[in-house]
Amino acid sequence: MPVITCIDDLKRIYRRRVPKMFYDYTESGSWTEQTFRENSSDFSDIYLRQRVAVDMAGRSTASTMIGQDVSMPVALAPVGLTGMQHADGEIKAARAAEAFGVPFTLSTMSICSIEDIAENTSKPFWMQVYTLKDDDFMQRLFDRAREAKCSAAMITVDLQVLGQRHRDLKNGLSAPPKLTPASVANMMTKVQWGLGMLGTKRRFFGNIVGHAKGVADPSSLSTWTAEAFDPSLDWNRIREFRKMWDGPLIIKGIMDARDAREALNVGADAIIVSNHGGRQLDGALSAIRALPAIMDAVGDRIEVHLDSGIRSGQDVLKALAMGAKGTYVGRAYIYGLGAMGQAGVTRALEVIHKELDVSMALCGRRDVRDLDRDILMIPEGFEGRWQA
Ligand SMILES: Cc1cc2nc3c(=O)[nH]c(=O)nc-3n(C[C@H](O)[C@H](O)[C@H](O)COP(=O)(O)O)c2cc1C
């Protein structure tokens, strides 16, 4: 196994091993990609305060997210088409997460189905739900998640309409990939990937094909989104979904304090401060910059989580010290999966865990549950002073 010291090492191998279409799908943001870039670069505007000669023995990164034990507060975010990055990718990632003791979230737009994950894991996972027009499909999705013993549902609220990612349009992204001369030429150079794909039957949207009616071309993410997603979604509709699911509920995609209060009012157990990894509203603030205002608005009444831009344990540490109770990684584990399958996801988690643990220690802290802003040096005006 190559020596992997950081998430970027995994990304380099991932880029070599996975067809360009799927690498591009992961490694892009919408339009100019400003928000995609700033999600990560804004973390480096925050500095960590080094402390010395503090007892650093007996440290712990264990915590809870929505009341469930986690070995570190870093869950795997829902990522569509994960099973195209590596054969049976969602199963591989879920197994790595389970062994590591962190939650795995399955996307509605996954290749492996809810039932596939339930059959191939032994601990409950979380189910991400996109809000579709078709009520029967929605009810059935929640029922399937319940039958699979999912321990939380996560409703994503920032994708009523799809942000444009230029490269997906140019590449003709689909699952399974459409065979054009360019895509075939590229795939022929990805031998391991191709052999894996030939060896699995899971190459379609597993939660959708055979479960949803009236979608002309379920292979195309953009066609499916345009036809099936509900652009009229509002908080009343989310209240209806709340009634379809009586377990723990997480609302994903909150960037404004007013929306955070609405999420609280519909009875969510947690919210995720997220801009979908910079894939939806280009020009939105980075998630880490949006966090303080949301903490001020609802932080004492609901669990606040954060994703978008996390590439290291230091990033996790900063989000936690700013008040987030949990974090998620998306791309960071996809790099690992595409690079080395399940072992690569495990390696991504190990890298982040070590960075979190050692950085916490060097800030003079021993317990991830007792972090606060004192370990951070946040520049004046970090969260922005915006005109009303
Ligand atoms: C390739 C890709 C596919 C994604 N698919 C979904 C999805 O199906 N559902 C969802 O709620 N979020 C989806 N997201 C957003 C992630 O859940 C998460 O918010 C984002 O990846 C966090 O940013 P990061 O990648 O910088 O960690 C996707 C992100 C990526 C990169």
TrEMBL record:
Enzyme class: oxidoreductase
Identification of the protein by name: L-lactate dehydrogenase [cytochrome]
NCBIfam families reported in the protein's UniProt record: PRK11197.1 (NF008398)
Known EC number: 1.1.2.3
Residues that coordinate or bind FMN: 78-80, 107, 128, 130, 156, 252, 274, 307-311, 330-331
Keyword Oxidoreductase: yes
Keywords, alphabetical: Flavoprotein, FMN, Oxidoreductase
Flavoprotein as UniProt keyword: yes
Gene responsible for this protein: lldD_1
A GO CC term attached to the entry: plasma membrane
Domain FMN hydroxy acid dehydrogenase: 1-381
Binding site for glyoxylate: 25, 165, 276, 279
Domain of life from the UniProt record: Bacteria
Active site: residue positions: 276 (proton acceptor)
Cofactor(s) this protein requires: FMN
GO molecular function (one): FMN binding
Family in the record: Belongs to the FMN-dependent alpha-hydroxy acid dehydrogenase family.
